[in-house]
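Why does residue order matter? Because the sequence determines the fold. Keep that principle in mind as you read this record.
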Amino acid sequence: MEQILSQEEIDALMSGLSDGEIEPQTEVEVQVETQVENKIEVQTFDFVKYTKGKKENFPALQFIYDRFSKSLRSALSLFIEKEVELEQSPIQYIEYRDFIKTLPLPTNMNIIVTENLKGFFIVIFDAKLIFSVLETIFGSSNASATRIEGREFTKIELGVIKKIVGLVSVEMEKAWAPVYEIKCKYSRSEMNPNYITMVSPEEIVSLCEFSVEIGDITSWIKVCIPYGILETIKSYLISTPSREDLDMREKWLNKLRERTSEVPLEIRAVLGKRKMSLEDFLKVTEDNIIMVDKCVDDSVDVLINDRIKFKGKLGILKGNKAVMIEEAIS
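Structure:
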């Protein structure tokens, strides 16, 4: 059936509109109100940020920090000659900019370069920890009453900080040893997190916090490692080394050292060289003197398996001709 109005219906509709009996906007307003009520809020989803924040946990890293917390507790107790309690918190993976927002000022941030790992750690000390150590060592007034905000660390305080950084570096090397050999070296200290530009604000970092109690003072130490550095040694961190693995590794290393020391090597010292034609060589007879490219006081090359490894001097030891090593060639 066709939906077409007749002329009479059209006239009646127009007449109703003219007399005000029909309100033409009523249906439209209802539709608009219905659309507003049914409107759904939409939020933008950042896939890149979600991917960055979703990081893989490394069981071996937890193993490392467990060892570190125990050894550092003993080292700090010996250093200040007072009992120290140290407790580890779970490892977090957060953006660096979110992390630095939680740090008070002043905060002591120390860059520790790890040569073997080709990266660095950031070790952060609570200011109260520094003053608590100072109080214990020098017997000063209560550290909790010391004014911290609004001033920089003094030379004495910076000296104590470097001592603690040294302890942390040594204990960190020991804690990492069963998993991956590293060498820690102090680089510099900063009080303002914004001055550390080695880490981009959006980069994900691994963060582990250690609660430290010295007497009545409670403070903390935080260790921050960029996630990208840990990914370079991912194969070492995905599994926790067991005691059996460590013992087996140590046995193999000792056995390898023993067997390596039994490998025969050819060692010879080149006293001098002289190039000559075959014709001249055939003319050499007894009592002929051949001039070489070195004098008696010149250093000679010491070769191991035809590779120059040392420089030495000719001499005599206990009636035997000998070469005294003077320099190793890398």
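The chain has two domains: 50-243, 267-328.
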